[in-house]
Amino acid sequence: MKKILETDRLLLRELTTDDAESFYRLNQNPNVIRYTGDVSFTNIEEAREFLKNYGDYQINGFGRWAVICKQNHQFLGWCGLKYDKNSGETDIGFRFFEEYWNKGLATESAEACIRYGFEELDLKRIIGRAMAENAASIKVLQKIGLSFEKEFDFNGSKGVIYKIEKF
What we know:
Aminopeptidase; five-stranded antiparallel beta sheet; three-stranded antiparallel beta sheet; 6 helices; 8 strands; 31% helix; globular
């Protein structure tokens, strides 16, 4: 397992097929995937296949990373950067088990990812996408320094794009 980042409370590392059960359980909670446009995996094996075929690390040199509690080594969720070759944009994303919401974990991990993107990957711009009604995610994007750019169609719902640029 390749460690990417460390914060006061968290370790961020590459996702592996060993994360399949946690990854599967994370997407089973309708509250967790409510604003994502994603559907839940049908079983752990489907999650394992997704992780096995997750090629962002090889293709782009970065991707979404497992967020692990330093204290007890618990899988809390994921956070990271994703490059979209169609738009040429890199976005910040995060998803956590509901019991870890409102503890500053998304902010802590996403802030570290933004810093990593600018300092280590030399990115010039990072965006964050959210459904307009997802107030919690928008609040995280604002806390980590992104500002509103524009609205867009998010799978038939009103979406917003926030951005941060390196100067």
